[in-house]
Amino acid sequence: MNLIQKVISANDFIFAFLTVGVIMYVSYWLSKNITNRKIPGAAIAIVAGLALAALGGEKGIANIPIFSGMALLGGAMMRDFSVVATAMGANYTEIKKAGLAGIISLLIGVFVAFFVGGTIGYTMGYTAVQDFTTIGAGACSFIVGPITGSAIGAGSDVIAISIAIGVVKSIMITIGTPIIAKQIGLDNPHAAMVFGGLIGTTSGVAAGLAATDPKLVPYGALTATFYTGIGALLCPTVFYFIVQSIL
Amino acid sequence: MKIYGVAILAACFLAGQLIGAVLGFWMDIPGNMGGVAFAMFFLIMLNEQIRKQGYFQAETENGIMFWNAMYIPIVVAMSATQNVKAALSGGWVAIVVGVLATGFCLLLVPLVSKIGASKELTDPTDTTV
Predict the structure, then answer these.
(1) Which residues of chain B make contact with A239, given a CB cutoff of 8 A?
(2) Of B9, B85, B95, the CB nearest to A57
(3) Looking at A14-18, A69-73, B12-16, B85-89, which range is the least confident one?
(4) Closest approach of chain B CAs to the CA of A215, in angstroms?
(5) What's the gap in Å between the CA of A30 and the closest CA on chain B?
(6) Residue-wise DSSP of chain A
(7) Size of interface A-B (CB pairs under 8 A)
(8) Do A120 and B100 touch (CB under 8 A)?
Protein backbone atom coordinates (compact mmCIF):
# COMPACT_ATOMS: atom_id res chain seq x y z
CA MET A 1 0.00 0.00 0.00
CA ASN A 2 2.79 2.31 0.99
CA LEU A 3 4.67 1.43 -2.16
CA ILE A 4 1.64 2.22 -4.35
CA GLN A 5 1.31 5.60 -2.69
CA LYS A 6 4.99 6.24 -3.24
CA VAL A 7 4.79 5.47 -6.95
CA ILE A 8 1.70 7.62 -7.40
CA SER A 9 3.12 10.55 -5.46
CA ALA A 10 6.30 10.47 -7.53
CA ASN A 11 4.20 10.50 -10.71
CA ASP A 12 1.27 12.64 -9.62
CA PHE A 13 0.84 14.41 -12.96
CA ILE A 14 0.62 11.10 -14.82
CA PHE A 15 -1.82 9.77 -12.23
CA ALA A 16 -3.99 12.84 -12.92
CA PHE A 17 -4.35 11.71 -16.58
CA LEU A 18 -5.55 8.33 -15.37
CA THR A 19 -7.93 9.88 -12.82
CA VAL A 20 -9.51 12.23 -15.36
CA GLY A 21 -9.68 9.44 -17.92
CA VAL A 22 -11.64 7.29 -15.48
CA ILE A 23 -13.97 10.19 -14.58
CA MET A 24 -14.59 10.85 -18.28
CA TYR A 25 -15.23 7.18 -19.07
CA VAL A 26 -17.72 6.74 -16.22
CA SER A 27 -19.44 10.05 -17.04
CA TYR A 28 -19.85 9.30 -20.74
CA TRP A 29 -21.08 5.80 -19.88
CA LEU A 30 -23.68 7.28 -17.52
CA SER A 31 -24.66 9.85 -20.13
CA LYS A 32 -25.25 7.17 -22.75
CA ASN A 33 -26.83 4.44 -20.68
CA ILE A 34 -28.68 6.25 -17.90
CA THR A 35 -29.69 9.63 -19.32
CA ASN A 36 -30.00 8.45 -22.94
CA ARG A 37 -27.54 11.23 -23.95
CA LYS A 38 -29.94 13.91 -22.65
CA ILE A 39 -27.27 15.16 -20.26
CA PRO A 40 -23.91 15.51 -22.07
CA GLY A 41 -21.08 13.36 -20.75
CA ALA A 42 -18.92 16.45 -20.39
CA ALA A 43 -21.50 18.05 -18.10
CA ILE A 44 -21.65 14.96 -15.88
CA ALA A 45 -17.84 14.81 -15.76
CA ILE A 46 -17.55 18.47 -14.76
CA VAL A 47 -20.15 18.16 -12.01
CA ALA A 48 -18.43 14.99 -10.83
CA GLY A 49 -15.21 17.02 -10.69
CA LEU A 50 -16.89 19.64 -8.51
CA ALA A 51 -18.27 16.94 -6.23
CA LEU A 52 -14.78 15.47 -5.85
CA ALA A 53 -13.42 18.95 -5.13
CA ALA A 54 -15.71 19.16 -2.09
CA LEU A 55 -13.77 16.25 -0.58
CA GLY A 56 -10.59 18.34 -0.45
CA GLY A 57 -9.87 21.86 0.64
CA GLU A 58 -8.58 25.06 -0.87
CA LYS A 59 -7.18 23.26 -3.91
CA GLY A 60 -10.10 20.85 -4.12
CA ILE A 61 -9.17 17.22 -4.52
CA ALA A 62 -5.54 18.22 -5.10
CA ASN A 63 -5.24 18.68 -1.34
CA ILE A 64 -5.33 14.89 -1.06
CA PRO A 65 -1.68 13.92 -1.70
CA ILE A 66 -2.19 11.22 -4.34
CA PHE A 67 -4.34 13.63 -6.39
CA SER A 68 -1.89 16.55 -6.19
CA GLY A 69 -1.20 16.25 -9.94
CA MET A 70 -4.75 17.41 -10.64
CA ALA A 71 -3.69 20.91 -9.63
CA LEU A 72 -1.18 20.99 -12.50
CA LEU A 73 -3.45 19.35 -15.07
CA GLY A 74 -6.36 21.62 -14.10
CA GLY A 75 -4.25 24.71 -13.41
CA ALA A 76 -4.41 28.00 -15.28
CA MET A 77 -1.42 27.17 -17.53
CA MET A 78 -2.88 23.96 -18.96
CA ARG A 79 -6.37 25.44 -19.09
CA ASP A 80 -5.28 28.46 -21.11
CA PHE A 81 -3.06 26.36 -23.37
CA SER A 82 -5.92 24.06 -24.33
CA VAL A 83 -8.35 26.99 -24.63
CA VAL A 84 -6.00 28.58 -27.18
CA ALA A 85 -5.91 25.28 -29.07
CA THR A 86 -9.70 25.45 -29.45
CA ALA A 87 -9.18 28.53 -31.62
CA MET A 88 -8.33 26.11 -34.45
CA GLY A 89 -12.07 25.56 -34.76
CA ALA A 90 -13.01 29.22 -34.53
CA ASN A 91 -14.19 31.22 -37.49
CA TYR A 92 -12.60 34.64 -37.84
CA THR A 93 -15.54 36.25 -39.64
CA GLU A 94 -17.89 35.19 -36.84
CA ILE A 95 -15.58 36.84 -34.31
CA LYS A 96 -15.40 40.02 -36.35
CA LYS A 97 -19.17 40.17 -36.63
CA ALA A 98 -19.70 39.76 -32.89
CA GLY A 99 -16.79 42.02 -31.93
CA LEU A 100 -18.82 45.08 -31.01
CA ALA A 101 -21.39 43.07 -29.05
CA GLY A 102 -18.48 41.42 -27.26
CA ILE A 103 -17.02 44.72 -26.10
CA ILE A 104 -20.42 46.05 -25.00
CA SER A 105 -21.16 42.84 -23.12
CA LEU A 106 -17.85 43.10 -21.22
CA LEU A 107 -18.63 46.58 -19.92
CA ILE A 108 -22.25 45.76 -19.09
CA GLY A 109 -21.22 42.48 -17.48
CA VAL A 110 -18.71 44.03 -15.08
CA PHE A 111 -21.00 46.97 -14.29
CA VAL A 112 -24.12 44.88 -13.61
CA ALA A 113 -22.34 42.19 -11.58
CA PHE A 114 -20.66 44.84 -9.43
CA PHE A 115 -23.70 46.97 -8.64
CA VAL A 116 -26.24 44.15 -8.33
CA GLY A 117 -23.83 42.19 -6.12
CA GLY A 118 -22.92 45.20 -4.01
CA THR A 119 -26.54 46.25 -3.59
CA ILE A 120 -27.63 42.79 -2.44
CA GLY A 121 -24.73 42.77 0.02
CA TYR A 122 -25.85 46.21 1.21
CA THR A 123 -29.36 44.98 1.95
CA MET A 124 -27.83 42.07 3.90
CA GLY A 125 -25.99 44.42 6.22
CA TYR A 126 -22.70 45.16 4.44
CA THR A 127 -23.26 48.89 4.23
CA ALA A 128 -19.71 50.33 4.44
CA VAL A 129 -18.21 51.67 1.21
CA GLN A 130 -15.34 49.16 1.34
CA ASP A 131 -17.74 46.27 1.95
CA PHE A 132 -20.07 47.27 -0.90
CA THR A 133 -17.13 47.60 -3.29
CA THR A 134 -15.44 44.35 -2.29
CA ILE A 135 -18.63 42.30 -2.39
CA GLY A 136 -19.57 43.84 -5.76
CA ALA A 137 -16.10 43.00 -7.08
CA GLY A 138 -16.53 39.43 -5.79
CA ALA A 139 -19.69 39.18 -7.87
CA CYS A 140 -17.46 39.86 -10.91
CA SER A 141 -15.08 36.99 -10.17
CA PHE A 142 -13.14 35.38 -7.37
CA ILE A 143 -10.00 37.09 -8.66
CA VAL A 144 -11.41 40.61 -8.98
CA GLY A 145 -12.86 40.41 -5.43
CA PRO A 146 -9.62 39.99 -3.47
CA ILE A 147 -7.66 42.30 -5.81
CA THR A 148 -10.21 45.06 -5.17
CA GLY A 149 -10.60 44.32 -1.47
CA SER A 150 -6.91 44.55 -0.74
CA ALA A 151 -6.51 47.63 -2.96
CA ILE A 152 -9.10 49.62 -1.01
CA GLY A 153 -8.27 48.19 2.41
CA ALA A 154 -11.33 46.04 3.11
CA GLY A 155 -11.41 43.61 6.05
CA SER A 156 -10.17 40.07 5.49
CA ASP A 157 -13.57 38.64 6.41
CA VAL A 158 -15.23 40.61 3.61
CA ILE A 159 -12.45 39.61 1.21
CA ALA A 160 -13.08 35.97 2.12
CA ILE A 161 -16.78 36.47 1.38
CA SER A 162 -15.94 38.10 -1.96
CA ILE A 163 -13.87 35.05 -2.94
CA ALA A 164 -16.73 32.78 -1.90
CA ILE A 165 -19.18 34.84 -4.01
CA GLY A 166 -16.91 34.47 -7.04
CA VAL A 167 -16.63 30.72 -6.52
CA VAL A 168 -20.41 30.40 -6.13
CA LYS A 169 -20.73 32.27 -9.43
CA SER A 170 -18.23 30.01 -11.17
CA ILE A 171 -19.97 26.86 -9.91
CA MET A 172 -23.41 28.17 -10.76
CA ILE A 173 -22.31 28.96 -14.32
CA THR A 174 -20.65 25.56 -14.68
CA ILE A 175 -23.76 23.68 -13.65
CA GLY A 176 -26.40 26.13 -14.87
CA THR A 177 -25.20 27.00 -18.38
CA PRO A 178 -26.16 23.75 -20.12
CA ILE A 179 -29.52 23.80 -18.33
CA ILE A 180 -30.57 27.30 -19.42
CA ALA A 181 -28.58 27.54 -22.68
CA LYS A 182 -31.66 27.15 -24.86
CA GLN A 183 -33.76 29.67 -22.94
CA ILE A 184 -31.14 32.41 -23.28
CA GLY A 185 -30.41 31.60 -26.92
CA LEU A 186 -26.89 30.37 -26.28
CA ASP A 187 -26.46 28.24 -29.39
CA ASN A 188 -24.33 30.32 -31.74
CA PRO A 189 -20.88 32.00 -31.75
CA HIS A 190 -22.37 35.46 -31.44
CA ALA A 191 -24.31 34.64 -28.27
CA ALA A 192 -21.30 32.75 -26.90
CA MET A 193 -19.11 35.85 -27.19
CA VAL A 194 -21.76 37.94 -25.45
CA PHE A 195 -22.10 35.25 -22.79
CA GLY A 196 -18.34 35.23 -22.17
CA GLY A 197 -18.32 39.00 -21.83
CA LEU A 198 -21.34 39.23 -19.55
CA ILE A 199 -20.29 36.41 -17.21
CA GLY A 200 -16.52 36.69 -17.34
CA THR A 201 -15.33 34.17 -14.79
CA THR A 202 -13.08 32.15 -17.12
CA SER A 203 -13.29 28.83 -15.30
CA GLY A 204 -17.09 28.99 -15.18
CA VAL A 205 -17.47 30.10 -18.81
CA ALA A 206 -14.97 27.49 -19.97
CA ALA A 207 -16.66 24.66 -18.10
CA GLY A 208 -20.22 25.83 -18.75
CA LEU A 209 -19.71 26.09 -22.51
CA ALA A 210 -17.81 22.81 -22.64
CA ALA A 211 -20.83 21.13 -21.07
CA THR A 212 -23.22 22.93 -23.43
CA ASP A 213 -21.47 22.72 -26.79
CA PRO A 214 -17.66 22.50 -27.11
CA LYS A 215 -17.83 24.33 -30.45
CA LEU A 216 -18.81 27.52 -28.59
CA VAL A 217 -15.83 27.42 -26.21
CA PRO A 218 -13.36 29.55 -28.22
CA TYR A 219 -15.91 32.34 -28.70
CA GLY A 220 -16.84 32.54 -25.02
CA ALA A 221 -13.22 32.31 -23.90
CA LEU A 222 -12.22 35.09 -26.28
CA THR A 223 -14.25 37.74 -24.45
CA ALA A 224 -14.10 36.20 -20.96
CA THR A 225 -10.33 36.52 -20.94
CA PHE A 226 -10.65 40.33 -20.87
CA TYR A 227 -13.18 40.35 -18.05
CA THR A 228 -10.87 39.94 -15.07
CA GLY A 229 -8.56 42.66 -16.36
CA ILE A 230 -11.41 45.10 -16.89
CA GLY A 231 -12.94 44.22 -13.52
CA ALA A 232 -9.63 44.67 -11.72
CA LEU A 233 -9.24 47.99 -13.53
CA LEU A 234 -12.70 49.45 -12.81
CA CYS A 235 -13.77 48.04 -9.42
CA PRO A 236 -11.09 49.55 -7.13
CA THR A 237 -11.08 52.86 -9.04
CA VAL A 238 -14.09 54.18 -10.97
CA PHE A 239 -16.69 51.98 -9.30
CA TYR A 240 -15.19 52.59 -5.87
CA PHE A 241 -15.49 56.36 -6.36
CA ILE A 242 -19.06 56.01 -7.60
CA VAL A 243 -20.00 53.96 -4.53
CA GLN A 244 -18.21 56.47 -2.31
CA SER A 245 -20.17 59.37 -3.75
CA ILE A 246 -23.52 57.56 -3.39
CA LEU A 247 -23.23 56.02 0.09
CA MET B 1 5.74 16.11 -37.20
CA LYS B 2 3.27 16.60 -34.38
CA ILE B 3 5.74 18.53 -32.30
CA TYR B 4 5.72 21.29 -34.94
CA GLY B 5 2.04 21.83 -34.24
CA VAL B 6 2.59 21.84 -30.50
CA ALA B 7 5.47 24.26 -30.94
CA ILE B 8 3.35 26.60 -33.09
CA LEU B 9 0.64 26.48 -30.42
CA ALA B 10 3.21 27.21 -27.72
CA ALA B 11 4.62 30.14 -29.69
CA CYS B 12 1.16 31.67 -30.15
CA PHE B 13 0.36 31.07 -26.49
CA LEU B 14 3.54 32.71 -25.21
CA ALA B 15 3.27 35.65 -27.60
CA GLY B 16 -0.30 36.26 -26.43
CA GLN B 17 0.62 35.97 -22.75
CA LEU B 18 3.45 38.44 -23.30
CA ILE B 19 1.13 41.01 -24.87
CA GLY B 20 -1.39 40.42 -22.09
CA ALA B 21 1.31 40.94 -19.48
CA VAL B 22 2.52 44.15 -21.15
CA LEU B 23 -1.04 45.48 -21.33
CA GLY B 24 -1.61 44.55 -17.69
CA PHE B 25 1.61 46.31 -16.73
CA TRP B 26 0.63 49.47 -18.59
CA MET B 27 -2.82 49.51 -17.04
CA ASP B 28 -1.36 48.74 -13.63
CA ILE B 29 -3.41 45.56 -13.18
CA PRO B 30 -1.92 42.68 -11.25
CA GLY B 31 -2.00 39.93 -13.86
CA ASN B 32 -2.77 39.50 -17.48
CA MET B 33 -5.06 41.47 -19.79
CA GLY B 34 -6.53 39.26 -22.47
CA GLY B 35 -3.45 37.14 -23.07
CA VAL B 36 -5.51 34.11 -24.05
CA ALA B 37 -7.50 36.13 -26.57
CA PHE B 38 -4.38 37.51 -28.25
CA ALA B 39 -2.91 34.01 -28.44
CA MET B 40 -6.14 32.79 -30.05
CA PHE B 41 -5.99 35.60 -32.59
CA PHE B 42 -2.43 34.67 -33.50
CA LEU B 43 -3.39 31.04 -33.97
CA ILE B 44 -6.48 31.93 -36.05
CA MET B 45 -4.45 34.29 -38.26
CA LEU B 46 -1.63 31.80 -38.68
CA ASN B 47 -4.10 29.05 -39.46
CA GLU B 48 -5.82 31.12 -42.18
CA GLN B 49 -2.50 32.24 -43.62
CA ILE B 50 -1.07 28.76 -43.80
CA ARG B 51 -4.31 27.37 -45.20
CA LYS B 52 -4.28 29.97 -47.98
CA GLN B 53 -0.83 28.83 -49.02
CA GLY B 54 -2.13 25.31 -48.66
CA TYR B 55 0.57 23.48 -46.80
CA PHE B 56 -0.55 22.90 -43.24
CA GLN B 57 0.62 19.33 -42.87
CA ALA B 58 -1.91 16.96 -41.33
CA GLU B 59 0.59 15.79 -38.75
CA THR B 60 1.38 19.38 -37.72
CA GLU B 61 -2.30 20.09 -37.32
CA ASN B 62 -2.73 16.93 -35.25
CA GLY B 63 -0.27 18.32 -32.74
CA ILE B 64 -2.61 21.24 -32.13
CA MET B 65 -5.76 19.15 -32.31
CA PHE B 66 -4.51 16.93 -29.51
CA TRP B 67 -4.53 19.88 -27.12
CA ASN B 68 -7.85 20.98 -28.54
CA ALA B 69 -9.23 17.56 -27.59
CA MET B 70 -7.64 17.72 -24.14
CA TYR B 71 -9.71 20.78 -23.37
CA ILE B 72 -12.65 19.03 -21.68
CA PRO B 73 -10.49 16.64 -19.61
CA ILE B 74 -8.48 19.62 -18.42
CA VAL B 75 -11.67 21.45 -17.49
CA VAL B 76 -12.77 18.38 -15.52
CA ALA B 77 -9.45 18.44 -13.64
CA MET B 78 -9.96 22.18 -13.09
CA SER B 79 -13.41 21.58 -11.63
CA ALA B 80 -11.99 18.96 -9.31
CA THR B 81 -9.47 21.48 -7.98
CA GLN B 82 -11.89 24.34 -7.30
CA ASN B 83 -12.29 25.66 -3.77
CA VAL B 84 -15.81 24.29 -3.38
CA LYS B 85 -15.49 24.38 0.41
CA ALA B 86 -14.96 28.15 0.31
CA ALA B 87 -18.14 28.56 -1.71
CA LEU B 88 -20.10 26.62 0.86
CA SER B 89 -18.42 28.24 3.87
CA GLY B 90 -18.95 31.85 2.73
CA GLY B 91 -22.37 31.65 4.33
CA TRP B 92 -25.67 32.93 3.05
CA VAL B 93 -24.30 36.27 1.86
CA ALA B 94 -21.95 34.53 -0.57
CA ILE B 95 -24.62 32.21 -1.91
CA VAL B 96 -27.36 34.86 -2.21
CA VAL B 97 -25.10 37.49 -3.81
CA GLY B 98 -23.39 34.94 -6.07
CA VAL B 99 -26.60 33.37 -7.34
CA LEU B 100 -28.66 36.56 -7.77
CA ALA B 101 -25.94 38.69 -9.39
CA THR B 102 -25.02 35.84 -11.74
CA GLY B 103 -28.65 35.11 -12.58
CA PHE B 104 -29.18 38.74 -13.46
CA CYS B 105 -26.21 38.72 -15.85
CA LEU B 106 -27.49 35.52 -17.47
CA LEU B 107 -30.83 37.18 -18.17
CA LEU B 108 -28.97 39.88 -20.09
CA VAL B 109 -27.42 37.41 -22.54
CA PRO B 110 -30.38 37.35 -24.98
CA LEU B 111 -30.80 41.14 -24.72
CA VAL B 112 -27.18 42.05 -25.43
CA SER B 113 -27.00 39.39 -28.15
CA LYS B 114 -29.87 41.18 -29.89
CA ILE B 115 -28.16 44.57 -29.77
CA GLY B 116 -25.14 43.20 -31.57
CA ALA B 117 -27.03 40.92 -33.91
CA SER B 118 -29.16 43.67 -35.43
CA LYS B 119 -26.00 45.53 -36.34
CA GLU B 120 -23.97 42.64 -37.64
CA LEU B 121 -25.23 42.85 -41.21
CA THR B 122 -24.74 46.56 -41.61
CA ASP B 123 -21.75 47.26 -39.39
CA PRO B 124 -18.99 44.68 -39.62
CA THR B 125 -16.24 47.20 -38.84
CA ASP B 126 -15.36 46.52 -35.23
CA THR B 127 -13.12 43.77 -33.94
CA THR B 128 -12.45 42.84 -30.35
CA VAL B 129 -8.89 44.12 -30.30
Answers:
(1) none
(2) B85
(3) B85-89
(4) 11
(5) 16
(6) -HHHHHHHHHTHHHHHHHHHHHHHHHHHHHHHHTSTTSS-HHHHHHHHHHHHHTTSBTTBGGGSGGGTHHHHHTSHHHHHHHHHHGGGG--HHHHHHHHHHHHHHHHHHHHHHHHHHHHHHHHTT--SHHHHHHHHHHHH-TTHHHHHHHHHT--HHHHHHHHHHHHHHHHHHHHHHHHHTTTTT--SHHHHHHHHHHH--HHHHHHHHHHH-GGGHHHHHHHHHHHHHHHHHHIIIIIHHHHHHH-
(7) 352
(8) yes
Q: Say which range, A99-103, A121-125, B105-109, has the weakest mean pLDDT.
A: A99-103
Reported as a pLDDT band with limits 50, 70 and 90, residue B123 is: very low
How far does B124 lie from chain A, in Å, by closest CA?
5
Q: Do B104 and A83 touch (CB under 8 A)?
A: no
Looking at residue A142, what is its pLDDT? 85
